[in-house]
Amino acid sequence: MFTESQIEELNKSFEKAKPSEIIQKAFELNNNAVVTTNFRPYEAAILHAVSLVEAKIPVVWCDTGYNTPQTYKHAEQVIKDLNLNVFLYVPKQTSAHRDVVMGIPTVDAPEHALFTEQVKLEPFKRAMEEHKPNVWFTNLRQGQTAFRNSIGIFSLSKDGVLKVSPFYYWSDEKLDTYLEENNLPNEFKYFDPTKALENRECGLHA
Asked: An example of a Gene Ontology BP annotation on this entry (predicted)?
């Protein structure tokens, strides 16, 4: 749908734009959009910003089944406060079942790829196949991983979907202010079972 040169042009034009302007532009390009979330820290910002422009946008939540009690409480609060149109996707096998047959493998264990496929990649692929979006809003930011440092506000997913990261250049401090000004909650007790390190790519984006 988009060429690399169009993506480059968009990134140049919107480098200094406000998140609301970036979101508006994305909807102008194509309004068949979803926003994905896992309710990790600072996710309330992207959910708030996108739902201000399009209140009923499908919110795809891929829940690994290993979230902390704090994350689940946080998710419930954000969903209620923002009246989000949530579509929940979970692995086909429960975490209790997987704990018996595999557990949570370390990143260098042979089972790690299968574990990541089961808890994260398969539910995500299922979500994208059902919604078939042309635009995918996400809260990727520069500085999170080496891959994310290379993509810009606008990028293309492996399947050619226009990926839009409106807060791409924002720091934690700037996002703290955004959350405060908009009376949005945050929660830091978050656990991703597929990542040993915070700066490791999770598999959905690279």
From this structure: sulfate assimilation, phosphoadenylyl sulfate reduction by phosphoadenylyl-sulfate reductase (thioredoxin)
